[in-house]
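Quick one: structure for this chain?
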Amino acid sequence: MGSAGGAWRFVDKLEQRARRARSLLCVGLDPHPEFLPEPTAEAARAFCLALIEQTAPHACAFKPNSAFFEALGAEGFAALREVIAAVPDDIPVILDAKRGDIASTARAYALAAFEVLGADAITLSPYLGRDAVEPFLEDPRHGAFLLCRTSNPGGADLQELHLPAHGPLYLAVARLAEAWDGHGNLGLVVGATQPEALSQVRAAAPERWILAPGVGAQGGDLGAALAAGRRADGLGLLIAVSRSLARAGDPAQEARRLREAMAAAPVPQPGPLDPALARLADALLEIGAVRFGEFRLKSGKRSPIYFDLRLLSSYPRLLNQVAAAYLPLLSGLQYDHLAAVPYAALPIGTALALLTGKSMIYPRKEVKEYGTKAAVEGRYAQGERAVVVDDLATTGGSKLEAIERLRAAGLVAEDVVVLIDRQSGAVEQLRGHGVRMHAVFSMGQLLDHWEAAGRLEAGQVQRARRFLEEERAGEKGA
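Got it. Here's what it folds into:
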């Protein structure tokens, strides 16, 4: 089984398998009594082992449903362990158990799932909050998928409840996943029967893996699910299929058909920005906060595009709109203070403090040799949480300098929010230091929007895209 062997992250194992097998198929292992000759653990074990053997060449992952094994008692639990052990080492196993309890109990569930049973990942309920999820995420080799918008008819009873400033509850869960994830190993469960919700969740969590059950017996459309849920790189979506494979006369042939249909489906292109964000992007261009030419960045790199967000302080209405764009990012975070990075983020942090009612502090770039000699200005107490606010992110270096000062002052700093991610490695660098980054825009999104709106010359777009591709290639090779 996979989790015992390597030291890599769960998401790395999942993505490598997806690329190598050219598959997004997650084979469900549900030994439902109707599929078995007799309701015994041995029959369940034999059923699953046969399905694994037939479908493994076409599977990106396997998903055993613990309920059907637990219903068979101690022998069923032993059979589940044997079934998981039978999955080839390079194929991730996601235990479909939908756990969710207080932290001490969650830790026991995590031990059972990962160490006793040997699964790579597990499905979880988010209802008890962050501390109930964290025990499953502490080891990067393991992952979890939060129930977000499920495929059952009753899922709407709670999941579509409207929250002020959040929209439907399931979107709040998607944003919480962005905040709770420290290693890139937390995904979401969104039913393939809900393509509109799937599209909305993808927009709220653009890089996260989504587990999408419901294709086949539940009526989910494969093409619609792929169009709504895949990332721009063609990955990020696991299509879970259980009953239609179990009922197939030739499961191997059906698994191959599904894999090939997924591989042949066109990769979705990035959708248009939300109208409010589109207007904000255009306004940044209009005031000259975005320039094209040749510029030397703080990192030493030369770029054909430059963002000068210090200009926002001269446009108070636009500054207020920019601050409002941060609010969805902040809504899923736990924090006591907004920690603005000098100097460009100080006006943004001030505007955010006025909008949220949260206090603003800031880590100094240079500590004065007189007066209080404070490294962090403002009123705070040790142990309180600060979210770092900045205008944009390139490599993440200035964020780490700020976080170092905040942590030295006794503050907890684990999250960074920015207006623009230049996609030059900041996400990965910060993650390596236990910090999550959240951005309103990526540079790629802005280029896509301005090109589609006809606001840039062809040469400007080409040079900027070439630079962005080089940055992404460098980030992957690092």
